[in-house]
Amino acid sequence: MGYERFGERARDVVGAAADRARRLRHWYVEPGHVLLALLDTDEPEAVRVLGSAAEDLRAGVIDALGRGTVEPGDHLPLSGGTSALLAGASQEADRLGHRTVEPFHLLLALLSTADTVLMDVLAAHRTDPRHVPRPAPDAGATGAPPAPGPAHDPYVWAMS
Q1: 92 close to 135: Cβ distance less than 8 angstroms
Q2: Neighbours of 100 (CB within 10 A)
Q3: Which of 56, 108, 113, 158 has its CA at 20 to 30 Å from residue 43's CA atom?
Q4: Cα–Cα distance between 59 and 105 in angstroms, integer?
Q5: Exposed, middle or buried: residue 90 (CB in 10 Å: 0-12, 13-18, 19+)?
Q6: CA atoms of 5 and 105, how far apart (whole Å)
Q7: Quick check: helix, strand or coil at residue 121?
C-alpha cells in the first residue's frame, strides 16, 4: 500500500508504530502498535474520544501485545491486520470527503477493526468503539476539515 494520500502526521504515526514494535522487540507492525503510536502523539485529542486515560490504554495494549526477547531487524513488515487498517483509514477519509489521511482517520479505522486484542483492551478499559461518535461526510469534499463544530466534536479535536 502506498502512502501518497497520507498526510505528514499520519505518516509520522505509521513510523512511530514501527518504532513501538521495534522497542517491544516485535518482528512486524500490528494494529496495537498503531494505537500505541496514536497514544504517544502530540495530538491526544485524537484518542480522547476513547473515554479512557491514555496511560491505562497504553499499559493494556502493551500487556496484550507482550514483549519479544530478540532484537528485530531494521525493516518491520506490516501484518495483514495493519495493512487492512491503513486501507480502512483511506476509506474513512474517502467517506468523509477528505483528500488526505490524517491520524483521526487511523483512529476511526482502528475502531472498526476486527482485531480482537484491541477490542478486548478497549472493553477492559470501558471503551465501547460502537459509541464513539463518527463525523458526517463533508458536503464540499474539499479535503479540508469541516468548519469547527461544538467543542465536544471528536473530529474537530483531532483535526484542529
Answers
A1: no
A2: 16
A3: 113
A4: 23
A5: buried
A6: 12
A7: helix
Rounded Cα gap, residues 98 and 84, in angstroms: 19
Give backbone dihedrals phi and psi of 101, rounded to 5 degrees, phi first.
-90, 130
Mean pLDDT of 20-34: 94
Q: What is the pLDDT of residues 28-71, one digit of tens each?
A: 999 999 999 988 876 656 566 666 677 788 888 899 999 998 88
Q: Which residue has the cell 474513512?
A: 92
Confidence of residue 73 (pLDDT cuts 50, 70, 90): confident
Q: pLDDT tens for residues 76-125? A: 999 999 999 999 999 999 999 999 999 989 988 988 876 677 777 877 76
Residue 95 gets the label, from left (phi > 0), alpha (psi -120 to 50) or beta, of: alpha
Cα separation values, 57 from 61, 102, 121, 136, Å: 6, 21, 7, 27
CA pair distance 145, 158, nearest whole angstrom: 10
Using CA atoms, how far apart are residues 1 and 18, in angstroms rounded to an integer?
15
Strand partners, 101: 6
Cross-strand partners of 78: 29
